[in-house]
Amino acid sequence: MPTNFTAGPVRVRVPATSANLGPGFDALGLALGLYDDLAAEVAPAGVRVTVTGQGAGELPTDDRHLVVRAMRATFDVLGGQPAGLAVECVNRIPQARGLGSSSAAIVAGVLLARALVTDGEDRLDEPGVLGLAAEIEGHPDNVAPCLLGGFTLAWSEPTGARAVSLAVAEGVRPTVFVPSERGLTATARAALPATVPHADAAFTAGRAALLVHALTADPSLLLPATVDRLHQDYRAAGMPATFALVNELRAAGVAAVVSGAGPTVLALSEPPADFPLGTDWEFWKLPIDVSGARVARGRLGHAERDPVAAGRKS
Predict the structure, then answer these.
(1) Is 98 labeled as ligand-binding?
(2) pLDDT at 306 over 90
(3) What pTM value is reported for the model?
(4) Is 217 within any annotated ligand binding site?
(5) 95 known member of a binding site
(6) Which of 73, 293, 296, 314 is at 20 to 30 A from 107, Cα to Cα?
């Protein structure tokens, strides 16, 4: 079937995410109330990307931009490429910090492309969006909460990625500690061994199961539920400041973990008011996003073009 494109722009809001949450390596994720806003429309020719906020002046503004690459992959699935594209990105999610900026870009690109095809939702349903986004990203733990919102459990089957979103219990109050330094997922993954001791795998599986209960029913168990032996310790040497902060927070009774591949630290319980924090860190109290990615027609409004992360407390 020929691919027909809609006239006019479409826009999408995508949340930041934190993956792993300690023992839930490559499976558990949480959507956070910090957002990128993007808009796109079909153009007569060429590709033009404008970036405001995080990554401005650093990210490519042509076909190399991750949002455009995700859009191109989606258009291929939907049957054809438009003549050109104009994309606007207002980024508030820090780049390369472990808060899902890449997954947000991928999810945004897939959803924008689908919305620009007149029958896009018929050709690519919600499971198809998740599967395609996970295929582009390489794993589903960040794209799932970005799409669905809330606390997500993601897994892969021969037919593709699957995920469910669960409501989070009252009393879970995320705080992210964001350093000025950046990290790379590929570098963090390279630090992982090919095998781990069976006892460590069994221990971590038990804590991951406990974490589901703690996040959805009993936050008083978050501290023991966030102990991990599968991946965090192997990455410690590459992020000494991150792991020092995790250990200091946990010693103070705070359920702290590395956010995704780091170097951001995620606390799932309230840090003490007098907790000492060095000048190399910013900390933001963020709500849990329960809606996931949201698509609408039209251009970005004035408030959506504001690159400041409205609502975050620090």
Answers:
(1) yes
(2) no
(3) 0.94
(4) no
(5) yes
(6) 314
